[in-house]
Specification:
Strand content: 35-45%
Radius of gyration: 13 Å
Number of helices: 2
Helix content: 10-25%
Largest sheet: 7 strands, antiparallel
Bound molecules: zinc ion
Distance between the termini: 30 Å
Strand order of the largest sheet: 1-6-5-7-4-3-2
Shape: globular
Order of helices and strands: EEEEHHEEE
Length: 108
Amino acid sequence: MRARPLQCPFCDNFLRRPVDISFRSMELTGGICTCGSVYVLDRTGHNLGEIFMEALTFVCRGDIDRALALDPGDYDSIDYDYDHHSNMTGGRPKSGKLGKLVFVRLKD
Ligand SMILES: [Zn+2]
């Protein structure tokens, strides 16, 4: 996969670097797209399960009970290799390690 600028997989918006967010009881590094999708960064690339749960909770506005009750058919999700330094997905990092970026969007 070729490296390319960070873009929402659902609406093709170009997105900013993930930022540190404190939301209710959550602390994460990520962002929100105008289409309603959210993205969460896993800096190490090794905590994907945990980050995925954070993304689900974040897209449910911090409602963890609702996040846990979601069926896989209730949302779309995609994860990318991500280089925080260049704000690019895919490709190989110029320096340091690749993290993972998880996108989740609830279906209507
Ligand atoms: Zn979007």
